[in-house]
Amino acid sequence: MNAADPVPGPRTTSDPVPLLRAEGLVKTHYGEGAPAHAVRGVDLAVRKGEFVAVTGPSGAGKSTLLHLLGGLQRPDAGSIWLDGECADGYGEARWAVERRRRIGIVFQFFNLVSNLSVADNVELPALLAGVSPRQARAERELLLDELGLEDKERSMPGELSGGEQQRVALARALVNHPPLLLADEPAGSLDSKGTREVTRLLSRFHQRGQTIVLVTHDARLASAADRVISFFDGRIADDAELGGAPSRAPGISGVLELKD
Ligand SMILES: Nc1ncnc2c1ncn2[C@@H]1O[C@H](COP(=O)(O)OP(=O)(O)OP(=O)(O)O)[C@@H](O)[C@H]1O
């Protein structure tokens, strides 16, 4: 090793490589009517441990942005990096692998497999990721305990309340310990009690270091985040750290340093 080379060592929270980075993202949907310019040039960097809420009016392009970040849709232009690795060359299969290993996703309508029990719903992504059945069971037990669902393991999703189903969806998304959790209106179909539950759980996972990008209309849910991005007409209109930090210039999204 050359004396000038940096000393190798573990990454720290001040590491400049963001967990997620997007540059110049553009996505237009072509449907029945006029083309919808959903995402019109988004630059974004999310550091490890951040909890970022993306808010904005209906049709602003928030869900499209989240779908691009999770590889569920492909951008027309722009690039995404996962932990410093460019995802431009990823095909469907590779993104599916990343969604099992590195990216957990929670949607508004839970996306549970209706004919599998709660336990099987949570274990399935772990088994698909190649974890042993024993380990998958242990992870499932731990998470369902944590989420207060230990007595619902044998239930079918249709027998649960909306809030309980969303907790199962959260367990499913987190069972493989993904560094990044993407959540698209996770409380969108819940009543205020369910919304409080989801808010509390996201905050708790965040406090333990989980990186979260959350799309929501709900101000209470957004206030659990430590950074709020206002999305308008396919662009970032404002990007602010909660707690009084000055907001950023429209259209520019910087990298925030992690708090200790
Ligand atoms: N698959 C699609 N085909 C055609 N148009 C689409 C498609 N998905 C989204 N759109 C359009 O793209 C625009 C952005 O939609 P998107 O769902 O990303 O917005 P949003 O901010 O998440 O809205 P909401 O808060 O209502 O969910 C809208 O005009 C929408 O109608």
UniProtKB/TrEMBL annotation:
SUPFAM superfamilies according to UniProt: P-loop containing nucleoside triphosphate hydrolases
Record's keyword terms, sorted: ATP-binding, Nucleotide-binding, Transport
CDD domains from the UniProt entry: ABC_MJ0796_LolCDE_FtsE
SMART domains (alphabetical): AAA
GO molecular function, one term: ATP binding
The keyword RNA-binding appears for this protein: no
Domain ABC transporter: 20-258
Family statement drawn from the similarity comment of this UniProt entry: Belongs to the ABC transporter superfamily.
Name assigned to this protein: ABC transporter ATP-binding protein
UniProt organism field: Streptomyces siamensis
